[in-house]
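Contributing new complexes? Match this layout with pyridoxal-5'-phosphate.
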Amino acid sequence: MGPGPSDVHPRILEAMSRPTIGHLDPAFVAMMDQMKSLLQYAFQTKNDLTLPVSAPGSAGMETCFVNLLEPGDKVVVCQNGVFGGRMRENAERCGAVPILIEEEWGQPIDPEKVERALKAHPDTRILAFVHAETSTGACSDAETLTRLAHRHGCLVIVDTVTSLGGCPLKVDEWGIDAVYSGSQKCLSCTPGLAPVSFGPRAVKAITTRKTKSQSWFLDLSLVMSYWGGGTKRAYHHTAPINALYGLHEALVILTEEGLENSWRRHFDLHLALRAGLEAMGLRFLVPEEARLPQLNAVFVPNGIDEAAVRSELLRRYGLEIGAGLGPLAGKIWRIGLMGFSASPRNVIFCLSALEAVLKDFDAPTTVGHAVLAAQELLSAKGY
Ligand code: PLP
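Output block (do not edit by hand):
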């Protein structure tokens, strides 16, 4: 129950153990076609250029940057946690000129600050931001930020590594131009694949580039020889066949549950976990209106060694929760409720384990109410 990878669904592990066939085998190619429509469903898009990059979420990020940016391009990058900083690094390495908008860690990106930056830099080509900041649990308003970017003539690159499948994300309705995600969070697959999707404006920007993308492996004009579809698929790289079986199964599971139901499950279980954590006396980092259901960041009680608590949870109960990063190191815990890990059983397990360990550490927390508070919410929601 950390910030990812989440627990992998047994059906996914089973799918990954199937025989490894060739990456151009007709059965595999049929699965690739299905994969595209399954990803289109997960992203809520009709974008033709939708595929899983054969590498982790960071490579999804890099795919967006190296294909959309050219040397000298201006890009407004928003940072309210670890991953906005990684976006800026990507922009710099493309020879682009990043303009950084910083937000306090734990807060969502402020659209007014973005508007001011876009007005001050009217030649900006791209606005890049993280929808669900895993390092803090803050959700930024991707719809508003995207509309703002379009009003100022820019494209958007949106990081949805932690949002895909876990909270509302509507690529076409919101008009997102380029989006990337990861397999290991709310899709509950193993790490190592990065679903990406590019809308018509992004595709036009890619096809009218003046310079070659700096990356051979991630250059979409080459990747599409394999993922482009139809009968003309050709070798680009040896696809991670078994990992793709896993992602396919993860997406089948998502369609069986239904995307809206998955969003609702994450939200309901977050409410139950929140009720329990607050009954213990723990406080959330992120303001309520911007809280991600799938990543619950709470302050460590005064005087408590946060790393010792995490070690004890792991030793005694086999339960992993995450630490704070950067300026939040030592100050918060990050409790993930992602995909298959987002279950009533885990909510109750985590609350009772955390409560017991905090009691033994003489933490200034309340004992005896957390599980009841969560149970009440769970039964009210019909779990
Ligand atoms: N972006 C966000 C918001 C993430 O949470 C992560 C990983 O946790 C990444 C990007 C990078 O993904 P990966 O670690 O799969 O490369």
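Reviewers usually confirm one structural detail per submission. For this one: The chain is about 45% helix and 15% strand.
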